[in-house]
Amino acid sequence: MTESKTPSIFRFWRLYLVLAVMLLCVMAIGWKVGTLHILERDFLQGQGDDRTIRTVPLVANRGLITDRNGEPLAVSTPVKSIWVNPGEIVGEARVINRLAEKLELDAEALTGRIEQNVTERQFLYVKRQLPPADAEKILSEFDGVYTQLEYQRFYPQGEVTAHLVGFSNIDDIGQEGLELTYDDWLRGVPGRRQVMIDRRGHIIEELNTLETAQPGKNLELSIDFRLQNIAYRELKEEFITRRAKAASVVVLDVSTGEVLAMVNQPSYNPHNKSDFTDFSVLRNRAITDVFEPGSTIKAFTIAAALESGFYTPETIVETSPGWMMIGADEIKDLFDYGTLTVEKIITKSSNIGSSKIALQIGAEPIRNVLDRVGFGQAAVTGFPGERSGILPNLRRWSRIETATLSFGYGLSSSALQLAQAYSVIADGGIRKPVSLLKLSEEAIADLPRERVLSETISNQV
After folding, report:
1. CATH of residue 435
2. Terminus of the chain with fewer CB atoms < 10 Å: N or C?
3. What is the three-class DSSP state of 197?
4. Number of domains observed in the structure of the chain
5. CATH code, 156
6. Domain-located, residue 238
């Protein structure tokens, strides 16, 4: 009996061994599952979220720029940019070539960019600012290609307001004009949100907003686009007719100092800057360029003459024979105007008449008037590149320097300064700041106003 039983036990030892091993495997698997589910649950959940949950930026749109009546001058439109993770797409020559073809890019250059950034970056723009429909079409055709919402600046009035408004770059940062001056005001504050994505990078669910995007603040300019458009059209016509090198127009509201129109020639299209060869066209010449104002200064010479008490509007000045010598220098008029009153010296624009007045009253009274109305001082608009011009302050004025000062030579001014100076005469001798922004009723009431010429003399001039 014993001998027959012993072989049967050993006969099944292999089966028992297999069962034991299987039992150990089941126990090991159960232990591992329990460990993963209980002890490492948080870690694994985080790893899974890292692969499916992304924190993406919420882009903030730039503030609107309008004229004083709400006419849009600069608006932001939503666009999408294509980007890739170089590490995901490097070596995929067929995909890169197809992507380059779809986006009308050079395939070799795109491959080189991807290879150069494969170890340094996980984000690489392929093409910026596409229409959303075009970007979504690309996204549906390629794996490992992603889109990012952005805003592109659009200027409805084009070159008519280009010098004043300026423009922003592809990253929506102001580069010229008031876009640059008020960049911090116009620029929004981006936000953040958590989203769930699929394996192709498509957003399948928005989880929550971490930070709300704050759009930029709007900017209301002082200009009236109707006047701006008329001024631009008329200036361009004269600019072409006279074959001028440059030209500017500034229109002010004399009661408030607000700029109602400001245009320059030559101008440019803010939507097409890639073909620029002459960057001087970007300058707002009415503010950044200075020149000798010439005969426009005669009105202030006459104001100084009337203040001196030596002259009245009816005082006679002899200008014959239409020229005069001051030392070795000759001063002359276009014609021999003969005997003129002080009033006619302005209307005839007589260099001889203004020179004789200046030589009698001296240079200092004229310079004093020019200083009081704002020459040689910046208008303080905050516009980039604004210049103050030059108003000479000599210890001793020669006779020729005195004479030429009286008809606008030997000093320099911008078109805006000249307009501000004439606004003093137009507003009865009151000087006030100029503004490129629309002023509220409260701001107008609180404007600093300084009387720099008597009302009587301003009216006479």
Report:
1. 3.40.710.10
2. N
3. strand
4. 2
5. 3.90.1310.10
6. no
Q: Find how far residue 404's CA is from the centre of its chain.
A: 39
38 falls within a domain: no
Domain boundary among 166, 188, 217: 217
Q: Is 423 known to be catalytic? A: no
Query: Beta partners for 430?
Result: 451
- Under 8 Å CB-to-CB from 442, ≥6 apart: which residues? none
Residues with Cβ < 8 Å from 233, sequence gap 6 or more? none
260 is a domain residue: no
Task: Say if residue 151 is in the same domain as residue 300.
Answer: no
Q: Which two tokens stand for residue 64?
A: 């609107």
- Phi, then psi, of 363 in degrees rounded to 5: -75, -35
Per-residue pLDDT of the chain (461 residues; tens, 9 = 90+): 445 555 555 566 667 777 778 888 888 787 777 666 665 556 555 555 555 667 777 788 999 999 999 999 999 999 999 988 888 888 888 888 989 888 999 989 988 888 888 877 778 899 999 999 998 888 888 877 888 889 999 999 999 999 999 999 999 999 999 999 999 999 988 888 777 666 555 666 666 777 788 999 999 999 999 999 999 999 999 999 999 999 999 999 999 999 999 999 999 999 987 777 788 999 999 999 999 999 999 999 999 999 999 999 999 999 999 999 999 999 999 999 999 999 999 999 999 999 999 999 999 999 999 999 999 999 999 999 999 999 999 889 999 999 999 999 999 999 999 999 999 999 999 999 999 999 999 999 999 999 999 999 999 98
Q: Is residue 39 part of a domain?
A: no
Which of 295, 308, 388, 454 is flagged as catalytic? 295
Domain boundary among 188, 217, 246: 217
Domain range for 418:
294-460
Tell me, yes or no, whether 310 and 204 share the same domain.
no
